[in-house]
Amino acid sequence: MRRHMAQLTLSERHLASVLMEDYPIAGLQSITELAQAAQVSTPTVVRMARKLGLDGFSALQEALRSEISDQIKKPMSKLDEIAAEDQEAHKLYRFAAAVFRNLHGTLARVDQDEFDTAAALMADPARSIFIEGGRITRSNADYLFNHLQIIRPGVTDLGRSSGVWPQYLLDMDANSVLVLFDIRRYESDLLKLAKLAKARGSRIVLFTDQWGSPIGQLADICFNSHVEAPSSWDSTIAVMLLIEALIAEVQTLLADESRTRIEELESMFTATRMFRDFN
Description:
Layout: H1 10-21, H2 31-38, H3 42-51, H4 57-73, H5 77-85, H6 91-109, H7 112-123, E1 128-132, H8 138-151, E2 155-157, H9 165-169, E3 176-182, H10 188-199, E4 203-209, E5 221-225, H11 237-253, H12 255-272
Parallel strand pairs: 1-2, 1-3, 3-4, 4-5
């Protein structure tokens, strides 16, 4: 769909954005519901589908269903074999099936240009990086912080208490990047933090779920991960996939600098005997 953006009208581009932001749910609604959600006419929906090379809205929905089916079935083939042998598959495999769906649903929504831009922002030595997560995503924020802090200087963990955030906001400006993690139930404090940081000119990179945190309206870059799982809690494995891929890319962009920092860090570990030496 992104390949066809240049040939779409303004209304059609807005419709395409709605489809991509709520992929694949938006496209599986009725044509009337989709048109209302995008605030366009139903003929606009049909015209856009035809510009994508499809016969109409029904063909667009069929293409979406086929795409989703392909994304889910291919990585699930081994689990399908297990399920075929035992219709009452063990809960471990049922959970794994949900994770595979999340991973492939997430990858289908990632804009590669946005991924590259996010990595470049995090690798820019002229920018300060600030990181914060929510109640469930705190561990994701910690993981990103721990690795970026090793790779480059100027990385700050805002901490668990919102009471100290104003002090950190003092240091945020147009050369700052605020990385936030916010999945359902979306946290009011994180939204307030995003608004204050945005007002100071900071760029915002958001990791959220497939439905999208309200912070998405403020974010410069937004990664929507699929998080549903057969559990009382959402799964953040797809979020971790994006985090680890970004960490790897940032380290690649800062290869020489990160090598020097890691070597110095290892020297400190050796001097303090932090880890066991088996030599």
